[in-house]
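Bug #77: duplicate submission created two jobs. Keeping one. Sequence:
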Amino acid sequence: MTDLLQQAFQKASELDANAQDRFAEFLLDELESDQKWDSLLAQSAPDLARLAEEAANEYRNGQTEPGGFGGS
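Kept job's structure:
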């Protein structure tokens, strides 16, 4: 365990039991969410690579137009 994580848990241990449980639920939810995003991104990597290659080919073939964001 890193020093910073140890410090965080030390501070959390000073909270009352209810606050500790809320903190634990928050932390577990965040970790689960991160794992889900990592999995989704890993699964979509081939599709994203294919889309990027298609966009690069369209650009090289002059099939794109200048654009931007903001709707102006």
